[in-house]
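In this section we walk through a basic example: taking a raw amino acid sequence and producing a predicted 3D structure, encoded as discrete structure tokens. The instruction is simple. Fold the sequence below.
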Amino acid sequence: MSEQSIAEILSKVQRLQIVARRAVNDLFAGQYQSAFRGRGMEFDEVREYQPGDDVRTIDWNVTARAGVPFIKRFAEERELTVYFLVDVSASGAFGSGDRSKLELAIEVAALLMFSALKNNDKVGLMTFCDDIVDFYPPRKGKSNVLRLVRELVAARPVPRETRLDRALEYLVRVQKRRCVAFVLSDFITTEHRTALAVAHQRHDVIAVSVSDPRELALPDVGFLNLRDAETGEIIEVDTSHAQVRALFESGAAERGRSRGELLKKIGIDELEVRTDEDYLTSLRRFFRMRERRYR
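The resulting token sequence is shown next.
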């Protein structure tokens, strides 16, 4: 890697850190913590029984010694382990505006990583395409998050198909305790229904689906050569025909509906972000939805 490329990576990391810190402090204060539960309830203390307390929480051993009823108090175990599964297949290199889908996924992942850091959570990273590209086990601390963001910024799209099932199966093998797992991908993949269901039984899996407007609708610009970034296949499309544009749009809409229905059936929350929209608005909406559910 050249000195120039290293300088560019460090500059991008610094920019992401500044943007993420501002968003975490100003926009998401408390929302991240409210949106994600810890591993369960842990013992906090015992105190004397008061009218209205649940009698099922009475600590009979302490009560017998003290001669008056005492109850056990529990607090939610807040520490989380948070994984980011980032799809680095070549389809992520596409972007019709100022940024590609992969660049957007990296920005969203960085913001969520700094949110996890503020909450003192452990953060891990997995990049994948047709198999696992890199894996970084979860750790705490700012230096760990900065390293993971650097690795993401330095990642290059891999011209191979997406196999989300392999990434999820690997997560289930290596992570035994329950975690929060953000899957950031355009979900242009097959053979992942079972893997999603199994992973979500063990973990809190969240699908961050990344898209670009040119994948949803074609402009009327005459003949276009469209190349599949993962297979290299090229097809010629005449966008001047309204029927061609309508078929393309309806196909894209159907894929989105199918993905949404699958995720809903399994019970996985979906966070949709687009390269031409403000992802902070989507994140705020997503956090509020999760917070209302737990409330």
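Looking at the output, two observations stand out. The mean pLDDT is 84. Strands lie at 40-48, 70-77, 81-87, 122-128, 132-139, 180-185, 204-211, 223-227, 234-238, 269-274. In the next section we compare this with other chains.
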